[in-house]
Target: G-protein coupled receptors family 1 profile domain-containing protein
Amino acid sequence: MKVSYFINRRKLDHFTLCCYASLALPNVDCQAPANEFSSCDDLMKDKTLQVCIWVLGIFAFFGNIFVVAYRLVVREDNRVHSLLLTNLAISDFMMGLYLLIIAFKDVQWQGEYFKHDLSWRVSGLCQFAGALSMISSEVSVLMLTIITLDRFICIVFPMRFGRLGLKKAIAICILLWTFGTLISVVPILGIEYFHDKQLDIGFYGRSSVCLPLQLSSDRPAGWEYSVSFFIGLNFIAFMFILLAYIAMFWTVRKSSAAVGSRNAKKESALARKLMVIILTDFCCWMPVILIGILSLTGNFHDPQKLAYVWIAVFVLPVNSSINPILYTFSTAHVKKRVTQYSRSM
Model:
């Protein structure tokens, strides 16, 4: 870029232009809108988040590989429950892969990120990473909804409805993955609605971390699509989950005076165990949904978009990292296997 471009231009449209200006004219007084995620040097400018994205990515990637492998090898009595948790682990694994892609790119371009910003955001890898994150997020939420529905039927309506069978569970999983893949791939099919004409970037390229999450009062290309799934669909899903668990524990408490069957107690114990997983996801997603709603109505003030950055890179992915610990590593069966293996060494 020619030095003459910056003469008499101190206010520029994009932060990377100021990076070029500083490179060409070290003492230039340049002003441009700050990027919430990136700086001239780094894709991820916050040093704490640089560490977090590696830690969360490694835990989500390898932890969920272990979960899937374990559940494929070890046969459990409740095959439907195991199938749903295996699919949840696969979706969480995809979030780990997404995080590691961003982390690797941050390291690769350290010290000169501004030179790669635009080419990165329009690249196929960024589109792939963004689609991965959306598939992971939506399939995880929908899988948690199905897990809750299964527990709800078993506890609240054990005699009225037939419990979820293995064939139905497989069909539901296929349906959820098909739906998650479709809504994630549609934005990269070249539809004009998703293309930002001003910046000449696509749906996933709106941020340097390739996330289409809408948590501001801005109206970028495709914002309605993002809101309808990340805010609308997820809000409905978690409201159902909340109400279903209230109904389940009310039913358990109501029948506690009576002599419960062994099977009913087993279902209640499983519901309590799964509640920990679902509660952590609920606590992470509800602030996102509320902030999204407040932002759209102009009632959330975050000029530096710090909340957006931490939610996108830490709050949402943290579930994918801790879920393996909650639903597999912490179980008595796994602890027993690990203890036996340790003693044999």
